[in-house]
Amino acid sequence: MKRKCQDYESRLPDNTAVKQQQLPAFRLQLTASEILSGFFAIGLFCLGMGIILLLSAKSIKEVEINYTEKCATCAKLREEATNFDKECNCSISFYLPQKMEGNVYLYYKLYGFYQNLYRYILSRSNIQLVGADVKDVRNCAPFRTSDNGLPIAPCGAIANSMFNDTIVLWYNFNSSTHIRVPMVRTETAWWTDKYVKFQNPAFQNLSSAFAGTAKPPNWPKPVYELDEKDPGNNGFINDDFIVWMRTAAFPNFKKLYRRLHRIGNFTEGLPAGSYSFIINYNFPVSRFQGQKAVVLSTLTWSGGSSLFLALAYLVTGAVTLLASFSMMALHLKLKERKTFFLQ
Amino acid sequence: MVLLFSTDPDGICHIETSGLDGESNLKQKQVVRRYAEQDSEVDPEKFSSRIECESPNNDLNRFRGFLEHSNKERVGLSKENLLLRGCTIRNTEAVMGIVVYAGHETKAMLNNSGPRYKRSKLERRANTDVLWCVLLLVVMCLTGALGHGIWLSRYENIPFFNIPEPDGHSLSPVLAGFYMFWTMIILLQVLIPISLYVSIEIVKLGQIYFIQSDVDFYNEKMGSTVQCRALNITEDLGQIQYLFSDKTGTLTENKMVFRRCSVAGFDYCHEENAKRLESYQEAASEDEDSADTPSGSLSNMVKPRALSCRTVHSRPLGSISSNHLTGSCFALESREGASEVPHSRQAAFSSPIETDVVPDTRLLDKFSQITPLLFTPTDETIPDPPLETLYIIDFFIALAICNTVVVSAPNQPRQKVGLSSLRGIPIKSLEEIKNLFQRLSVRRSSSPSLASGKEPSGVPNAFVSRLSLFNRMKPASPVEEEISQTSESLQGSDDSACPTEIEKQNSDAGIANGKVEALPGQPLTSSLCYEAESPDEAALVYAARAYQCTLQSRTPEQVVVDFAALGPLTFQLLHILPFDSVRKRMSVVVRHPLSNQVVVYTKGADSAIMELLSVASPDGPGLEKQQMMIREKTQKHLDDYAKRGLRTLCIAKRVMSDTEYAEWLRNHFLAETSIDNREELLLESAMRLENKLTLLGATGIEDRLQEGVPEAIEALHKAGIKIWMLTGDKQETAVNIAYACKLLEPNDKLFVLNTESKNACEMLMDTILKELQKNPASPEQASLSASLHQPPPTLQGSGLRAALIITGKTLEFALQESLQKQFLELTARCQAVVCCRATPLQKSEVVKLVRSHLRVMTLAIGDGANDVSMIQVADIGIGISGQEGMQAVMASDFAVSQFRHLSKLLLVHGHWCYTRLSNMILYFFYKNVAYVNLLFWYQFFCGFSGTSMTDYWVLIFFNLLFTSAPPVIYGVLEKDVSAETLMQLPELYRSGQRSEAYLPLTFWITLLDAFYQSLVCFFVPYYTYQGSDIDIFTFGNPLNTAALFVILLHLVIESKSLTWIHMLVIAGSILCYFCFALAFGAMCVTCNPPSNPYWIMQEHMADPVFYLVCVLTTCVALLPRFIYRVLQGSLFPSPILRAKHLDRLPAEERIEALKKWRGTGQMDQLTSKYADHSAVESERIPIYDPSAVFAVMSATACAVEKGNLPVCETALDSDFSETKASGMAGPSKD
């Protein structure tokens, strides 16, 4: 049969469903009830999700303190680049009305700092940071080499502009007793960043590993002195450094600074009471009309404190339900005329 | 190359020009005169003549020049002497010639102007929108540049932000803004859908693949299916508004069947023949069920053989000998099994239906009176035989010889009687020639019946072949008696129907046996094939053969006709004046072997012949009266034939005295040898010959309508396509065919535009226009006011349909610039226009006019060389791969084998292609804008610095991999309405004509939707992650993922049908995206700075917020469109949507719903009919009858039309008193 076809009717197209465009089509033409029930389902899902998100967002406790104004004197000092070696401390006290349960995270937050500029984010060397070649500074313009020609480690604009305030939280147990709240400075970065993307050069001695390199111009001390107490947090694998190097998406952003070490008074979290931040003010923001803040926050499964997602779900759910009700009304009305098609 | 020598003793060279014009028949070329007589080969070195010819041009059918010998004698050169580059020499051993055009100057090269690049309307539309996209891109980039400049001026001196150049300088904001412009162009260039063009091409290829593999286009008879020769205009098929159709071979089968004839004023109906045709049809349909069923039809026994030959025919025949041919036929047939392909029994041409003619009994009776005795007395003193019998003889001789049919005997090598030029005897007096001929004819007629059973090819015996003839071309040149006989092997046959001949003849003979004495020894001679340039000629020759008047052989010098009662007659062929469209007739000048007179047989269109008939018969008043009577009767018969849709031809003859002939010949020779205005002189010369004719009779040849043509035309009409029929046929035939194929409805109002002057034409058009304007609901207005909510046919709903008949002469006036507008306005108000007597040039001019002035999509369909220009001019040219060569197909964009396929091609595939492609293009715009805008919105948050929050590879692959296949599949496979419904409701085609799927508004709505979706897609994640510690590329990931889902699900909402292929591709795209993101995220530790997607996807996959964001974004982005679609479906469904709804009903309900749909259409029609009640009072329509009333009135009389005249026939300026009636004829039956 097949051979005959070839011999004789070689030009007769095959009569297959594909070639004749007779493939069974899935009925995307849904019936009215299917569409309406779909709409109701979407609406209810969104509403429910919105409520859940809303509840979880409400459960988050967050304290944000903007210290740009409060440390105006320090800010003024930092506006002059020549004062870079002058220390300036600033104390901000606040009252926590409710205790913050569970893990508490300390963030610093910058306003108006564009960490997402194209040429800014380009200015880094991943090869250097992964520890493969400390002297690879190709992409780091304009912070490739120091004035004396040594390659900068870590090179580039991102590293150079690293946030260098130190923030210490004190718990004012009573007017005389001030307890320094124990904070962990590690595990603030992504695990993969810390253990894969950022590696120190393989040397016994960290300082010799960075021999022949210069510190970034804005840094007060070289990279191997970032955390001299903890070799697992020093050099390129310093968590603060890694967190900074993950450039923020928006000009207003916060970055994780410390985690609450839940010991002693703080096993439950942060108790209510009076606290104060002692901030060693180094990072200049007033030059670019930026602002700095510290944020204390708890976390839930749904992330941070943003209410937006919850509200968006609620609104979407409401709108969908509204649409489905009106469509149902329409459907019932049109059904009498028997001319109802959907899709 | 000018032909100087051919091994053929006649100086003839046979060529095949399939490489040039696609015609595969043999053509003859002639050696330059004088060289023909030379025996020896031309020695190139001794060639001393000078050739002067016209400058190179591209006209294949024209060549002028002369050859000047050393003795200053000039010989004219014509196209007969020119061998063109690209043709193949056949049946000729060798030729020699001198090259006149070479290289790029050859006619073949000059004709090869390269294909005209047709760009579809949709693509032109899309191109403008691409320009809009470019504009949008520029605006976006300017925004970016400006924004960056302004932003930077705020932070100019902050090294954090204005990162200095490597040399330490920082950029000024203006310069940075300028640079940013170009950065943004690079970043956002995806907005210009370059991939769109690639995708369009792929989609078109897919569409063409599906068109070509549609089984409905398969023609069993010819084993051919639709050919798409143009790859880039499939979607135009869905937007056709005007259709221009040829008649012959397009609407009709172009299988000429001899139906009736009228000889000497007597009509011979050939009723048996008619019956046979009917039974043939039945037999054919019966055979579809079972091939073995004998159906009692005469031709049936022949058919299986015809079938088998047909199958082989499609192979290159080349030099396969016919025996071999037959052998393979049988082999094939036995292998195929009988019931395999029942349809193929109808051969493409020279099928039994054409070649079999059952003689009319009455005519046969008269034939029996013919005896050789009528002519036996060799002198001129024969008693007058009954005039009618003579007429009959002459009539059939004319049928047999007045043509250019090539005879070939398939079963053995053709014996060719070559009579080379005669030299030596200077013929000074015609008397001598006459003597010579008398001598010959005496010997001829006294010779016994020549054919013997052992000489199967019917070649005249040696005696006959040794006839001496003088060279027909050169009465003045020396003539020498020289006889040569050459056998030439004509291998194989080009006509595969030949093997059937024996049997056919047998069956014929069987029928005829009882009535006439079948000639013994003859049957074998009839195994002849006739190859004719036009099927008409073949039909006539076959008809003549049915009356035992068989054309036996034809050489340039003589024609042998085997006349039943008279034996083989050898006509000396003196001259052939070939057919041309100006004269509309052809003539042969022969010397009659019996009466030995020079006789001119003329065959041509009735109008052409009737004018040339001799007013005064030389033989006396009695005869004159008889002539008049015959003429009147024949005219009546002709009108009758035309009314039945038959093609009519008149046969006339003229007996010339030798002196007359000699004089004419001298003039003609002058004309032939002249170089300047040769054509005009030749025409004049022909006119001189073709007058004072005596009418012999007329023939009616039926050109049967193709299967399914009326249905197709009706469907196309309903689809809102205006159909024009452009034909070269006469008005009556054309109008009748138009009625037969439902181009004209019985209750149409006909306006006939037939004027002899421009002014009259203008006046008449004015009158008709006024007339039409009076009618309030003219079709055009109705169709314009048709809204979406009225899917029922609006055109039928309007009271009256008007149709315009225009003749070629008038068309010429109408096409003049001053009248163009009026003409177009007029035609716009007519549903159907029939242009008769139109020349090929006029055809193309009409198409060009309509196309350029009305700005509509036009389609031209035709099958012959005369339609080529029209096919090339139209937006879409469709060729019918029929019998008239392949030129039309060569020039066309699509080639179908039958007209009826057009309805599916347009209504189904055209609609699909158009909707698919337009939706795909819109989707592409949407996709690009939606995605690129995400990047653009981000610029507002990164100081317009050109950062992309997406990894570059993802950015590239997003367009290239993840979202490219689904739109292509959508463009190829989308099926909004099923094929059945589209065929059943041709009205749905109108949406394509109005470009509903892709209006400018649709484009902007699409863009708006894209903007909305991109906003949602960007700002939902933005607000979600606002103020958080998210980094750039982690932010980009949910954006990409959501955009992917939005874009793919958008397609799902838009597509009307989802097959497993769609599902597979969409699922594949999503899978591909995730796989890529995961793999890339796992492997890329340091690569691809600055973006580093390392582990981002993995991180997100474990984050519930990621999913929540994606779900919310997708929902919010798609809700508006989905709600819109749902509301559109329920509140204001387009006809397409309603039809789609029909598709999913169960079969029974569907039929009901279809009826209802059509019912509403008819209701509308009824109501509107009542509305203009006055216009349509009479529904009874008289059959169009041109001869019914010929009232002579002035043009303005048309305005005096009384109330309700359904037929308004107007013609103007009667120049010829009898037939060219003018004025307006009322209805004959009202």
From TrEMBL, chain A:
Specify whether Transmembrane helix is a keyword of the entry: yes
Q: Which UniProt keywords apply?
A: Glycoprotein, Membrane, Transmembrane, Transmembrane helix
Localization: Membrane
Which superkingdom, per the lineage? Answer: Eukaryota
Q: Which Pfam families match?
A: CDC50 (PF03381)
One GO biological process from the UniProt record?
phospholipid translocation
Q: What is its main location?
A: membrane
**Gene Ontology CC:** endoplasmic reticulum; Golgi apparatus; plasma membrane
Q: Which residues cross the membrane?
A: 35-55, 303-330
Name the PANTHER family for this protein: CELL CYCLE CONTROL PROTEIN 50, CELL CYCLE CONTROL PROTEIN 50C
Family to which this protein belongs: Belongs to the CDC50/LEM3 family.
This chain belongs to which protein, by name? Cell cycle control protein
Q: What organism does the UniProt record list as the source?
A: Bos indicus
TrEMBL record, chain B:
* Membrane topology (UniProt): Multi-pass membrane protein
Where would you say this protein principally sits, based on its record?
Answer: membrane
Decide whether keyword Translocase is in the record. Answer: yes
Indicate the transmembrane segments per the record: 130-151, 171-198, 921-940, 952-973, 998-1023, 1035-1053, 1060-1085, 1105-1124
Q: What organism is this sequence from?
A: Bos indicus
UniProt record similarity statement: Belongs to the cation transport ATPase (P-type) (TC 3.A.3) family. Type IV subfamily.
Q: Where is the composition biased (Polar residues)?
A: 484-494
In this protein, which residues make up the domain named P-type ATPase C-terminal?
Answer: 889-1134
Which keywords appear in this protein's UniProt record, sorted alphabetically? ATP-binding, Magnesium, Membrane, Metal-binding, Nucleotide-binding, Translocase, Transmembrane, Transmembrane helix
Gene assigned in the entry:
ATP10D
Spans annotated as Disordered: 279-301, 478-501
Location of the protein in the cell: Membrane
Q: What is its EC number?
A: 7.6.2.1
Which EC class does it fall in?
translocase
User: What's its catalytic activity?
Assistant: ATP + H2O + phospholipidSide 1 = ADP + phosphate + phospholipidSide 2
Q: Which domain of life is it from?
A: Eukaryota
Q: Which cofactor does it need?
A: Mg(2+)
Please report the name of this protein according to its UniProt entry. Phospholipid-transporting ATPase
